[in-house]
Amino acid sequence: MSAILIAEQVLNGLQSGVMLFLMAAGLTLIFGVMGLINLAHGSLYMVGAFAAAAVAAATGSFLLALAAALAAAALAGAVVETVVIRRLYDKDHLDQVLATFALILIFSEGTRWIFGSFPLFLDIPPWLSGPVELPGGILYPAYRLALIGVGLAVALGLWLLISRTRLGVRIRAGENDREMIAALGVDISRLYTVVFALGAGLAGLAGALVGAIQSVQVGMGEPVLILAFVVIVIGGIGSIRGALVGALLVGLTDTLGGIFLPELFKLFTDPSSATTIGAALASMSIYVLMAAILVWKPTGLYGARA
Amino acid sequence: MTDPVLSVEGLCKSFGALRATDGVTLDLRPGEIHAIIGPNGAGKSTLIQQICGGLSPDAGRIRFLGADVTALPVRARARMGLARTFQISSLAMEDTVLQNALLGALGAAGRPWGFLRPALRDAGPRTLAEQALERVGLGDVAAVRTAELSHGQRRQLEVAVALTLSPRAFVMDEPMAGLGSAGSQQLTALLAELKADAPVLLVEHDMDAVFALADRISVLVYGQVVMTGTVEEVRADPRVREAYLGDAP
Amino acid sequence: MSRERAFNLAALALLVAVPAWAQLTGETFTITLATRAVIFALAATGLNIALGLGGLVSLGHAVFFGIGGYAMGILAFHAQSYTPLTDWPVTIPGTKLMPVIWLVAILVSALAALLIGLLALRTTGVYFIMITLAFGQMFYYFAISWPAYGGEDGMAIYVRNGFPGLNTLIPIQFYGLCLAWLLVVLWFNARLARSRFGLALNAARQAPQRVETVGLDPVRLKLVALVISGAVTGLAGALFADLNRFVSPTMFSWQLSGEIMVFVIIGGVGRLFGPVAGACLFVALEHLLGGITAYWHVWLGVLLLFIVLFGRGGLVGIFAGRGAVHD
């Protein structure tokens, strides 16, 4: 196996990791501030992808499509927060799980109703469609490289937002003491709507960005949502830093496991069954990672509370 | 002098820069009520948690019935006969009073692994549970849902559950908290009886109750035991008046 | 007679009367629907033991359902293809006998519940929910990527497995078997709730700290509850596979985990007949609404949302009021 192939796979792992981060960051922020477990986060990812596909089809502009994804998901998030989610903050996790499961059903079937059951396609913009040559002679798709860049930029932006702005101060206060920030005169229900819409917008952006390299279809959000849960379990609930580290770990493990485990098994057995066994085990690798971290640190790498 | 039932030596516990427990040494002797008093934030709850096993100390030793229990978990200490009551009642609110007492009896017997026979038909534990309820004066409300009990009755139920464990020592975390004067008089009378069963380590804010019940009092201030003595000694000690009652001359 | 008891008896009467009526009028499809409802009720009763008694919000119960299904699928596949499961160290043949399949389904899903529980119960609350969901996905992807038993396509079993003395190909006889299992498990659940273990588990859900201070280990209680729960749901999976004569990775899917939980909630958490009522309502809605619109899940979502936000206690709660004390 060549060094170039390995480098490519590492980049692929990074790319899927940073996209997972966009999902996990919103989830963990929402849990940290509002104490809410939101299964419908994957639906917002889907909303972003569909909005992007629809706008791209109508205007032909990829940037407009991304803006539409962000706006549609954030808007959907704000509406859902106002109508349903805010009634769940003082309920137990079981109620939150069920209500947000109900939202998944409504979002998924509603989308199927509007757009039909066939996948939509979102094209990579021409200016990002070719490969770029990286140092060491690696040819890597420009679009995927851009995804890594966008993901890291969002991570940086989120860090700046939380550590340097007034909104960030309120978010941090909200994570520590809800009554306190209400007492400080912050309109807490508006803060919650803003945080939820922010998380939703990040999910929608991820959906649109990933939608361009996969297909845009109903049900695309939930597998990513569950991966994001794995990320959060690894990183620790409520920690943005944990979400970043966890997302990169999961992205790399998933991608590299899929490549290396079959190779590893070729050392012991014939190629065809090595590929079979390797692929089956690779599909389990991130869960094994999660289990290992659970045994070592039950509240995740950066998690404080259970 | 007989050996103490429970003893704490040089116990330390810090949270960051805060020394919640700072070298505490005290003991509980057979047949006595030993009260721990101290202003809010003196580290009483942290101390109780360490004695019962909910928190592990940074340094120091805890001995119970002659054995070093410092590293044992809560349930192991409970099985040895260390019976704890909670400051905020911690009961199964949806269950009946009798079921709560029965839980204690099952725990004491170490036998929760029955899957088909109704728990209430288990004569041994049931008798134990009913006796405990009678003793604390809850015999009449055994079939009532715990959520419907008054605050004072829940306190009594906490004590009843502790009694089912056939305790060798009680550790009580502010049993009088939130009780009216009638309620605390009733509970005071009950605690005075209990020390015949096993000695009581009593953390309490209600000074009337403490002065009425305690054989010895330890005063805890900023995680340290300022003094240990009889009621009279504590009442007379100027350091206590200053630190605890706050009326320095 | 309490209202809940009346509700339970009415539900039981319907479980007998509706298929009997269908048998007399030759409505075989109704019997198949009723079988589906009874099997879902069994799966949900399994979850109700963990969730209602133990407070364990497991969003991964499809794991056990799927394991039960594949236990049936794998054993029957080897029997119908006359190949052994393994030749080493001893030859283990497949089987078409339901009692053996059930036993294997129960044991293997109990083992899976034990392993998942050992890991997931290191945590509580939201972590537990996310971890059970994640393990469900792990089994799902494993089933997809393991080609020996059909991979993504699943596998068909041509003839329903047999039970001594019965002709399981006749729908009403297979229904009778499934109903018998449901009744046995409901009886067990009722006894369990009143037993010493049930008492301790109930307390572990409400006040874990208390359970610990009387010398019991709440985590171990919950682990045992999860094992029992997983075994029951696994059994339901084996029956479900036999109903459809087909197993596929969708038996492991997160949607199915969510639906099993929905049965429990729309019926009534912690109520003996809650899962039964919920599963019957779900199958009825699926059939009635599904006939009107292909998008009936939207209405299921809306119904679920209303039950969560406004109607605690589910169907049993609506008919029989808030739960009385277990005695």
Automatic annotation (TrEMBL), chain A:
UniProt keyword terms in alphabetical order: Amino-acid transport, Cell membrane, Membrane, Transmembrane, Transmembrane helix, Transport
Membrane topology: Multi-pass membrane protein
GO biological process assignments: amino acid transport
CDD domains tied to this protein: TM_PBP1_LivH_like (cd06582)
Coiled-coil intervals, chain numbering: none
Transmembrane residue ranges: 18-37, 44-64, 70-89, 101-122, 142-162, 191-213, 225-252, 273-296
Gene Ontology MF: a single term: transmembrane transporter activity
Superkingdom as given in the UniProt entry: Bacteria
Location(s) in or outside the cell: Cell membrane
GO (cellular component) term, any one: plasma membrane
Entry's family note: Belongs to the binding-protein-dependent transport system permease family. LivHM subfamily.
Protein name: Branched-chain amino acid ABC transporter permease
From TrEMBL, chain B:
One Gene Ontology MF term: ATP hydrolysis activity
GO cellular component: plasma membrane
One Pfam family matching this protein: ABC_tran
Coiled-coil ranges from the UniProt annotation: none
Keywords: ATP-binding, Nucleotide-binding, Transport
Lineage top rank: taxon: Bacteria
Segments forming domain ABC transporter: 6-247
UniProt source species: Pseudooceanicola pacificus
Protein name: ATP-binding cassette domain-containing protein
Record carries keyword Nucleotide-binding: yes
From TrEMBL, chain C:
Gene Ontology molecular function: branched-chain amino acid transmembrane transporter activity
Residues spanning the membrane: 38-57, 62-80, 100-121, 128-149, 169-188, 223-240, 260-285, 297-320
Signal peptide residue numbers: 1-22
Topology in the lipid bilayer: Multi-pass membrane protein
Keywords assigned: Cell membrane, Membrane, Signal, Transmembrane, Transmembrane helix
Localization of this protein: Cell membrane
Keyword match Membrane: yes
Superkingdom of the source species: Bacteria
Keyword Ribonucleoprotein: no
GO cellular component term, pick one: plasma membrane
UniProt main location, coarse: membrane
PANTHER family registered for this protein in UniProt: ABC TRANSPORTER ATP-BINDING PROTEIN, HIGH-AFFINITY BRANCHED-CHAIN AMINO ACID TRANSPORT SYSTEM PERMEASE
Protein name as catalogued: Branched-chain amino acid ABC transporter permease
Organism: Pseudooceanicola pacificus
